[in-house]
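Worked example (supplementary).
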Amino acid sequence: MKIPIFDPGYRDISARTGFSGNRLERLSENRGPDLQAKSLRNPNARTMLVGGGRVLLANEGGRTKLWFTVAEAEQLGGTIRETIVLGTEPNGEPRLATPIFFEPETVPDGFSFKDFRAVYIEGLLGEEDLGALAQGGSLVAWNSTHRFCSRCGHETEMADAGYKRICPSCGTSHFPRTDPVIIMLVISSDNERVLLGRSPHFPERMYSCLAGFVEPGETLEDAVRRETREETGVPVGPVSYHASQPWPFPYSMMIGMYGRAENETIKLDDELEDAGWFTRADVRASIEGEPDAKFIMPPKGAIAWRLVEDWLDG
Amino acid sequence: MKIPIFDPGYRDISARTGFSGNRLERLSENRGPDLQAKSLRNPNARTMLVGGGRVLLANEGGRTKLWFTVAEAEQLGGTIRETIVLGTEPNGEPRLATPIFFEPETVPDGFSFKDFRAVYIEGLLGEEDLGALAQGGSLVAWNSTHRFCSRCGHETEMADAGYKRICPSCGTSHFPRTDPVIIMLVISSDNERVLLGRSPHFPERMYSCLAGFVEPGETLEDAVRRETREETGVPVGPVSYHASQPWPFPYSMMIGMYGRAENETIKLDDELEDAGWFTRADVRASIEGEPDAKFIMPPKGAIAWRLVEDWLDG
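After joint prediction of all chains, the assembly is encoded as:
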């Protein structure tokens, strides 16, 4: 059995994907009944305002502002009592996430209420803020879709500063959900071509890695083989892990894997619009944004981009 | 960036953990309104009977029987209408999971109602059946704890043969939950010692790898560093993936990782009863079951065992 030789000059491959830059101290051992109130009272607390997969950003002289004081958040219409404590900055200042929602026509002047995807594609936030947004966005989404107890139907109450919901009727504690998704670059046996697919809902000309939810009772490796076979008919042999990426749509965890195809015959199912094998030259043209590339890639920072670029460089 | 060189004589490391041997064809693209009824009508269908983390086993002349006909399951008191379709054997025979529950005193003669942990520790089932049990156990648990809509509190209805629950009031579709858990063997910088800990609820003398739930908005690597620092104060640098294991308690996915310690000073938190550094000799004595070993290991087949043994052999 081969144990990896750790690279002394390492930086996680995962750290080179979007939404992975979160550096807040999560205080996960110190959550409790007082943490929310104490954090809200701290004059140095700052909160992001999120809801429905969107975040409120202010434009202040060309700079994008993500973090607001609690007073500002209240004035803007945030639901302060449902504020989640994400953690603290190294200097101890609390960082929070407060639920809010606007219809497009009610967004206040000077602000935008941006889809997380647009924030990330347009590069509106730095790595660390984008990482905090993944945490805040996931937790606000989970709290908002778990207001009732799945065991008995009673209303639940937020606890532990947003990391738990308790049912006062049956006593069940509910914890945030994180859905593992495997996303895989399947490589031909001669290592010269890769299998990419196109979902009907993709932007025009876009192809990407195959992906799917991990099912109950399967390993990550078996999930890669099952999804690839189901979607394209291609049998996959060895599988290896590459990187992971928080993915707040609404609360997934992308797990990037390589797989080696045992043969290359494609038999499409209904889920994909198309799938095909692309050469190194095809893929390089897309990565480099050449106008006559056969297809366009998902945005830089997507774990699919990471898998593809690292294969090209490997 | 280094892309792994696939081993042509591969067998997944994950396949060498307990609960990972599931080989059923999951039919995940063909679930739908008719699958349950059609499968129940198939005379070659067989079902396991599970509930509350336990499974009904019959002892038939020294052989442990896991699979029952639908008629047998009904006679034994299984809730047939809540039967989940796990998939099919290669010959097309359906394999199902039917909810059941017994108090200890009501278990019928000739049967045992065994905790999944005991089934696995006592080696009562073969690899493939243990894998199917992970799938069936997780799905029955998820369905039984999600009878109500977490969005609106209305009762939900099972759909897609147990892989979905629909709320007839607000229309939300709910999907099975799989909780990713990182479990890590942290290795000293000279590669001669490993960090193991002891939870208060462990059997006497047992030490194991540290572990914890992946939080919203963090990568797997960051989760390893956070949990290790929180539980033991030990800072971890590079992290690498080793293997994964389905873990039906009640529906987790264990993700086994190695991490390299940046220093070895331990500062315990409240969660662990103890943690310490163990040498190769200490660990080998435990793996080999020597009576004077400093500690005992979790059972063979646990991913912690896999991490430790593969480090020793590596």
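Two points are worth noting when inspecting this output. The longest strand of chain B covers residues 236-247. The radius of gyration of chain B is 22 Å.
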